[in-house]
Amino acid sequence: MSYDSQPPASPTPSTPPRRLGRGNVTVAVAALVPTALAGWLVWQAMSGPGDAEPPKVVPLPSQSRSASPPTDAKPSAPTSPPAATASPSETKKDEKPDGTGPLAGKVVVVDPGHNPGNFRHTREINKLVDVGTHRKECDTTGTSTNGGYTEASFTLDVSRRLRALLEEQGATVKLVQNDDRPYGPCVDERARIGNEAKADAVVSVHADGSAVGNRGFHVILPALVKDGAADTAKIVGPSRELGTRIAGKFVQATGSAPSNYVGDGTALDVRKDLGGLNLSTVPKVFIECGNMRDPKDAALLTNEGWRQKAAQGIADGIGSYLNG
Hints:
The protein is α/β, with parallel strands linked by helices. It has helices at 29-46, 122-125, 151-168, 187-196, 236-254, 275-278, 295-301, 304-322, and strands spanning 107-112, 128-130, 135-137, 172-175, 201-208, 218-222, 226-227, 230-231, 268-271, 284-291. Strand 7 (226-227) and strand 8 form a beta hairpin.
């Protein structure tokens, strides 16, 4: 889930974290099925071999979901979150690309959403930071599956796999966090890391925590925002192209359909409330790889083979974007 989409809370072992503000969708699932199928076919068509031209962007509807979560419900986290699944890339974390390959000279920042230690530092992650349009919490604990597999573990595992795939193509890759700090970083620092790296692309990896029956992935794009420290005018266009490429390749690699509850089957969602996007000065998107609270999506998200496919889809989308 987007780390600055709802307030964190102290963990309670009996109640897994819940995503807030994601399930307030009033359209019936039955009405969404043909739309989602149409969107899936659009993405297949958009992601043909070679990607000689940028895929056509499906027009987005106006945002209908409320950015404010209910005040009577708060997310929590398991007492002892499982460690992220080890991957081959984890043993290579200090290696540098050899400067060859199709992405040589490109800088990519990968932002694993949340931090496995956030639930131990609720006071720190509740601290308010400036996100341009307003002030909000530093970070959140994230969500989890009903079985206790945390979003923080998922995002870290996929991000490590993604880094390995990009480095194989010669890119210089920086992880915003690698379970190497006690909590965070805060959303404003996450944006600053990408900016200071002068990244050619930044992708923030997440998984959603919506209602059962809500399935599929979606990519979050920055809205046009100019307020306080936030000015996204220069990155709205490039970020949309980056997100479109990732969405098309994600379908191909994973077989997952676009979200049936966000984006009206386009797999794209535009938001102006996320500090990680508002404060970015380089092309950046978020990807919600699936819904951890739906059993069918959870079965995919907890599968190591599927996580590798997810990383491959994101890597292919980034590569397509960077190679034009």
